[in-house]
Automatic annotation (TrEMBL):
It holds the Pfam family ECH_1. It comes from the Bacteria. This is EchA10. GO terms for molecular function: catalytic activity. Belongs to the enoyl-CoA hydratase/isomerase family.
Length: 273
């Protein structure tokens, strides 16, 4: 491998490709199981921030290159840039604008995010998959939160995401005992949307993406927002939020199309507006 290739592998990259109304984001560092460097995280944050304001987009697809989804944040790459020890509080200052921002964007962007997982989804890679709206994994994929096994506490939303998806008992197994969970078990636990055999995985994802990209994009985004809001709100607060969202969605072209399709007893054709 050349020096340039070594440098590219050390930095890693994220490939962003428009495919009609779908934005496809690929973690492209397969030699390191697509572990995330600071540059890759920065690229993802920028791509999702831009996607949030792009009226032509209707869904986002997140995947890893080759055989793995993501082996987490690359702490070696993160800490090898300077021989001088960072000053106290470095993580507290830096991470909220990087890894934390990435997880928040996946959770809150008003576009459906579909994640394909094959191979390893570890640490922050696991949490990225959990933050997505729909994660479809290979039956033999491995979800792993190895923080305790490596001597430090969980990060990137693990302690918030896991209990809400699988309950406290199973969250303890993953976070305190570093228990690995297969794709098929993750689906059985309700941790992800679906598990599929290797031959069916891509087709399952594409069918789901097509359905979401053909949906009423504004209403989908507001429903996603309401679900997220409801995780820390009372019933009364959630119903009030639903009313504001309903007021907005009822003003869309897709709402009118939905009503007209119902009257005509046909499938609606939404254009995302």
């Amino acid at each position: 491998m050349s020096h340039d290739a070594d440098a590219a592998d050390a930095e890693g990259s994220v490939t962003a490709r428009r495919d009609g109304a779908i934005l496809r984001l690929t973690l492209d560092r397969p030699q390191r199981r697509n572990s995330l460097t600071p540059l890759m995280i920065e690229t993802l944050v920028r791509a999702l921030t831009e996607a949030a304001a792009d009226d032509a987009l209707r869904a986002i697809h997140l995947r890893g290159a080759d055989e793995d989804f993501c082996a987490g944040a690359d702490w070696v790459a993160t800490n090898s840039g300077s021989a001088q020890r960072p000053r106290t509080g470095d993580l507290v200052r830096r991470i909220p604008h990087a890894a934390h921002r990435l997880i928040e964007l996946v959770q809150t962007i008003q576009l459906p995010v579909v994640c394909t997982v094959r191979g390893w989804a570890v640490g922050m890679g696991c949490n990225l998959a959990l933050a997505a709206d729909f994660t479809v994994a290979a039956d033999d994929a491995v979800f792993w939160e190895p923080f305790i096994e490596r001597g430090f506490s969980p990060d990137s939303g693990a302690s918030w995401l896991l209990p809400r998806l699988v309950g406290l008992a199973r969250a303890r197994r993953m976070l305190l005992l570093s228990e690995k969970v297969s794709g098929s078990d993750a689906a059985d636990w309700g941790m992800i949307h679906q598990a599929a055999g290797a031959a069916e995985l891509d087709d399952s994802v594409e069918q789901l993406l097509a359905r979401l990209a053909d949906g009423p994009t504004v209403a989908l985004g507001l429903a996603k927002q309401a679900l997220h809001y409801g995780q820390h709100a009372s019933l009364s607060q959630s119903m009030t939020q639903e009313l504001f969202n309903l007021e907005l969605s009822c003003r869309t072209k897709d709402f009118k199309e939905g009503l007209e399709a119902f009257r005509q007893r046909r499938a609606p054709t939404f254009d995302g507006r």
